[in-house]
Amino acid sequence: IYPNEYMKEIMTSAYFINQFFNGEYICEGYPRNDVFFNRQKEKKIRQDLKLMDKEVFVYMPTWRGLVTKKENDKQIAEIDDYLKAIDLQLRDDQILYVKLHVFVTKHLDISNYKHIRAFPSEYEILNIADCLITDYSSVFFDFANSRKKIILFVYDKENYLKDRGLYLSLDDLPFPQVTSVKELIKELNLPKNYDDASFIKKYCTYDKKNSTKLICNYIYNENGLLINKGF
């Protein structure tokens, strides 16, 4: 299942799927993204979590892939320092949910922070965020469906691009980039002021509120629906 033509081209090539797979591709929105089109669900989650009077941010950074203890400890300390600095500058009406890789999470005590909470296991919690903070993670493709603000916190941009690289240039994305906590806090307190229409058209092409239903209808309906053109 691919939510846009770009993703289909990249994934089928990068994983060599087009060399051995003779089946059909479904070009349709990801089922997990249906939640971004459900404003009633957003309201209910906010009520259940008692966040109706809060501004909610979510931080979902990429794990840097450092598996040695020395390098992983360095990454944990670095993230902890950033979170402490962010926590001190958030207002009492602002909450930051943090979702980190398990290798990092198990070594950080989120309860030490005042305005920061651990991200719940339910992905749909992302729907209540007023702003997403990420970096090189593909989560911004999903969250863009909300039409809410996205900030790229790329404090290690030069080293990451040198060591890992990306399929896309960050500078071609519409989202603001920040490299320090001071810049991040400033951007968090500014309204969304960029145009992401072209981005959404290209990368969220088939995402919609009923993608799950349409995919299930296709899989379980012997007559099927049109493939590779969106439903």
- What proportion of the residues is helical, as a percent range? 25-40%
N-to-C SSE series? HHHEHEHEEHEHEHHH
Structure summary, number of beta strands:
6
- By helix and strand content, what is the structural category? alpha/beta
Largest sheet: 6 strands, parallel
What's the alpha carbon Rg, rounded to whole Å?
19 Å
Oligomer status: single chain
* Low-pLDDT windows of residues: 225-231
Please report which band the strand proportion falls in: under 5%, 5-15%, 15-25%, 25-35%, 35-45% or over 45%: 5-15%
* Order of adjacent strands in the largest pleated sheet: 3-2-1-4-5-6
Number of helices: 10
Mean model confidence by pLDDT: 89
Q: N-to-C terminal Cα separation, in Å? A: 12 Å
Shape call: globular
What features would you describe in this structure?
The chain is α/β, with parallel strands linked by helices and 231 residues long. It has ten helices and six strands, in the order αααβαβαββαβαβααα. It has helices spanning 5-14, 17-20, 39-48, 69-89, 102-105, 139-143, 157-163, 181-188, 197-203, 211-220; strands spanning 55-59, 94-98, 116-118, 131-134, 149-153, 177-178. The chain has a six-stranded parallel sheet. Strand 2, helix 5 and strand 3 form a beta-alpha-beta unit. Helix 4 packs across helix 8. The protein is globular, with a radius of gyration of 19 Å. Mean pLDDT is 89; it is low at 225-231.
